[in-house]
Each structure stands twice: as structure tokens, then as C-alpha cells.
């Protein structure tokens, strides 16, 4: 997958400050919600692994990996009541706020002159193959490939890790759920590749950090 010269210049320019930018974003998200911080790192790792298994490399692989890491960055703009909520079922108002996070994330990254490929992943990772997702109800080939990959990585990690309102399920159970979602919510071919990758190389073990254990600026 190639990129035009303008996109290459954008990626190079973004790369100059990427460590500082990503570090601050991850630290800020970790201060609000340690689970979301660890989840973002695992999703980035799973996204990279799935993309590599799908034969993606170069700048496209980098964009998908970073898109996976930043897919929930829009949650920085959500209210405290969302992070303090311990219930699986949200009110209509709270659900609407949660579903705004792809738009918030895309707007935030655009201010940092983030490459379009990464913004597309953040914006579209909750779209679904059958058009039932959000924020735009895209379907099938309308959904960027990177977003399809991150969506599957996001789903697998959500199923196999503990959340305040939901206990994790086994990897075997996760595979059953993912196969049920294939072709409607998720891309069927990529789902098969994800299952193959996990069976071959196992799961990620990145754990949440305590909110105050993140050294905000030490590495900058």
C-alpha cells in the first residue's frame, strides 16, 4: 500500500513530535482511567499483529498500530460521570456521550496535524460491516481497512479483560463470540486471521497502571 509524496511529508513531520504527543495523551488518559490506558496499549499491539498477519507493512502498518493505540483518545473529552459509571447499561444520554468519542478523538488528532490514515482509524473503529455502527453508519467497503483491524483488536481485548461491569471471558469463549459477529459486525476474513494469530502467539499481558504512577513529563 503506497502513499503519495504529500502523505509521506505529513508522516515525517508527525514523526518528529510523536513521542512527546503520544506520551502526553497516554498519560492524560491514564490519569482519568487506568484500564483505558492499558487497553489502548494492548489494542495497539493486537492491531499491529493482525495487520502484519494480513500482509500489511510500512507506513500503513505504522498508521494502524498508532490508530489502535489512540482509538479511545476521544474519551479524554468525556465527562467524569462516564468514567465513574460501573453499570453495563447506560442511560440514553450517557450512551450518546460515549458514542461521541470517535468524533472527539478525530478532532483532537487533527489539531496535532496527525496523518489522515490514523485519524480514519480513530473515527471509524466503531463502524460495523452491516452498517449498524457509529458515528456514520458506514458499511462494508466504506469502512477503512485499518478501522476494521482495530475494531477486531478492540473487541477481542474487551471480551478477554476485566471491566468494572463485566468479568473477562476465556479466549475460547471470545473466539465463539467473534465468529458469531463475523460478517455482520466484523470483517469475516480478518476475524479468522485474528483467531489464527492468537492461537499461534497468545495474548498480550499489558496491565493497568496506577493513576499516579505515570511519570508525566520525565521522558520528554
How does this structure look, described?
The protein is mainly alpha-helical. It has one domain (5-202): Hypothetical protein af1432 (Orthogonal Bundle), CATH 1.10.3210.10. It is 60% helix and 0% strand. The protein contains eleven helices and no strands. It has helices at 5-16, 18-32, 34-53, 58-70, 80-84, 92-98, 101-111, 116-124, 145-159, 171-181, 188-201. The longest helix has 20 residues, at 34-53. It is globular. The chain starts with a helix and ends in a 19-residue tail after the last helix. Residues 1-11 and 210-220 have low confidence and may be disordered.
Write the layout of secondary structure elements.
Elements: H1 5-16, H2 18-32, H3 34-53, H4 58-70, H5 80-84, H6 92-98, H7 101-111, H8 116-124, H9 145-159, H10 171-181, H11 188-201
Helix pairs in contact: 2-3, 3-4, 3-9, 3-11, 4-8, 4-9, 7-8, 8-9, 9-10, 10-11
User: Quick check: average pLDDT?
Assistant: 83
Q: And the CATH topology?
A: Hypothetical protein af1432
Number of domains: 1
The radius of gyration is: 17 Å
Shape: globular
Looking at this protein, list some descriptive labels.
mainly alpha, Hypothetical protein af1432, 11 helices, disordered N terminus
What's a quick, concise take on this entry?
This protein is mainly α and 220 residues long.
Amino acid at each position: 500500500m503506497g502513499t503519495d509524496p504529500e502523505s509521506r511529508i505529513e508522516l515525517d513531520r508527525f514523526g518528529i513530535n510523536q513521542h512527546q504527543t503520544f506520551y502526553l495523551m497516554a498519560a492524560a488518559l491514564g490519569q482519568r482511567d487506568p484500564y483505558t490506558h492499558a487497553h489502548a496499549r494492548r489494542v495497539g499491539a493486537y492491531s499491529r499483529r493482525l495487520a502484519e498477519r494480513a500482509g500489511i507493512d510500512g507506513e500503513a502498518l505504522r498508521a494502524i498500530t498508532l490508530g489502535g493505540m489512540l482509538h479511545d483518545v476521544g474519551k479524554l473529552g468525556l465527562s467524569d460521570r462516564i468514567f465513574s459509571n460501573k453499570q453495563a447499561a447506560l442511560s440514553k444520554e450517557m450512551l450518546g456521550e460515549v458514542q461521541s468519542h470517535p468524533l472527539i478523538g478525530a478532532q483532537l488528532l487533527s489539531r496535532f496535524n496527525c496523518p489522515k490514515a490514523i485519524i480514519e482509524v480513530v473515527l471509524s473503529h466503531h463502524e460495523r460491516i452491516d452498517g449498524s455502527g457509529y458515528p456514520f453508519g458506514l458499511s462494508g467497503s466504506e469502512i477503512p481497512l485499518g478501522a476494521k483491524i482495530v475494531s477486531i483488536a478492540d473487541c477481542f481485548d474487551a471480551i478477554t479483560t476485566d471491566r468494572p461491569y463485566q468479568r473477562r471471558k476465556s479466549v475460547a469463549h471470545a473466539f465463539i463470540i467473534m465468529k458469531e459477529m463475523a460478517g455482520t459486525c466484523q470483517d469475516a476474513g480478518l476475524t479468522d486471521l485474528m483467531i489464527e494469530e492468537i492461537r499461534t502467539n497468545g495474548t498480550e499481558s499489558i496491565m493497568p497502571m496506577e493513576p499516579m504512577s505515570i511519570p508525566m513529563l520525565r521522558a520528554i
